[in-house]
Amino acid sequence: MNPKWNGQFSCFDLVAQTGDCAPIVVRAGNVKIGGGDFVVMAGPCAVESESQLLRTAESVAASGARMLRGGAFKPRSSPYAFQGLGLEGLKLLRKAREETGLAIVTEAMSEEDVDLVAEYADLMQVGTRSMENYALLEKLGGCGRPVLLKRGMTATLEEFLRSAQFLAMAMPKKTNGNPQIVLCERGIRTFETATRNTLDIAAVPVLKTVSRLPVIVDPSHAAGVRSLVPILARAAAVVGADGMIVEVHPSPDQAMSDGAQSLTFRQFHDMMDDLDPYLAIRDAARQSAPQLSMVGGTD
Ligand code: PEP
Ligand code: MN
User: Fold this and answer.
1) How confident is the model at residue 297 (pLDDT cuts 50, 70, 90)?
2) What does the pLDDT look like over 171-208, one tens digit per residue?
C-alpha cells in the first residue's frame, strides 16, 4: 500500500476514506450502486430516435442492464457533429423508463440545463470534458439528484477527487454525510494511440481504497473499438468495480456518434452472459478490498 495515498487524499474529507467508514451506497431511482451488485448501465451514446432508444432499452434490460444511458445533450469535439436531441431526447428517455423500468443516466453539459435534465434523469452524468467545470458541479450538487462524475481525460486521481469533494460540498445536508456521487474511470489520454484512451485499471482499486464512493468503469470510451469492450469489462469486474457504463446501438455502423465502440445487442448479451465467472473471481479473492495501511495524513 502506498503510504502517500491517505495523506494525499484525506483532505477531501466528504468523499475520502479516512478510517473504517462504511462505503457509500448511491441510490439512482430504484437502483443501488455500491451496495455489492455489479450495476450495468447500457444504451446508445446519443438518443437518436424513439425506435432506436426503445429497442435498445428493451434489449439491454433483457440482457441484465439495470440502467439506460443515452445522451440528449452531447459534448462533441467538433461543432459540425450531431449535438443531441435536447429536450426531445429527454422525453424519449422518460418513455423508455416507463416501458422498461430501467433507471436513466444522462449528461447535463451546462448549468442552464441542470434543472431540466434533473426532471428526467435518475443519475446526472458529468462528462470528461466537464469534470473541471466548477459552476456546473456546484449547480449539480444542489439539484437533488445523484451524480455520475467521469474522470477528466487528463485528470490525476487527486484532481478527480477534488471535483468529487466540490460536488459533495454543494450537496444538501440531507445526504447525511453520504454524498450521492459515483466515480467513473473512462480512460485517460496518454502517449498511446492504439486505443482511444488508456484505461487506468489501477484507478479502480486505488479509488476504492482512498474514497468511500462507488467506482464504475466505462470500457467503451476507454477502448474506442467494440472488440475490446467485453475484455475491458471483464477486467473491471475482476478489479472490484461497482459496475460499468457501456454503449450499445441497434446498428452501430449507422450510429450518429461513437458507433465504432458501440456493441450490437448480441455482443452486449454475450458480454453480460460471460461476466459471472469474473465477478466470482473478485468475490473469492483474498483481500479483494484493499485496506488503508495508515490513517490520518500530513496535509
Ligand atoms: C459519453 O458518455 O457518451 C461521453 C461523451 O463520455 P465522456 O464524457 O467520458 O467522453
Ligand atoms: Mn459516447
Assistant:
1) very low
2) 987 777 899 999 999 999 999 999 999 999 999 999 99
Kindly list the protein residues whose Cβ atom lies closer than 6 A to any atom of ligand 1.
45, 71, 75, 127-128, 150, 186, 218, 221
Please give the full DSSP string across the chain, using - where no structure is assigned.
--THHHHHHTTSTTTB--SSPPPPPEEETTEEESSSS-EEEEE-SB---HHHHHHHHHHHHHTT--EEE-BSS---SSTTS----THHHHHHHHHHHHHH--EEEEE--SHHHHHHHHHH-SEEEE-GGGTT-HHHHHHHHTSSS-EEEEPPTT--HHHHHHHHHHHHHHS-GGGTT---EEEEE--B--S--SSSSB--TTHHHHHHHHBSS-EEE-HHHHHSSGGGHHHHHHHHHHTT-SEEEEEB-SSGGG-SS-GGGPBPHHHHHHHHHT-HHHHHHHHHSTT-S---S--S---
Distance (angstroms) between ligand 2 centre and the Cα of 221 equals 6
Q: Which atom of ligand 1 is nearest to the CA of 125?
A: 2
pTM over 0.90: yes
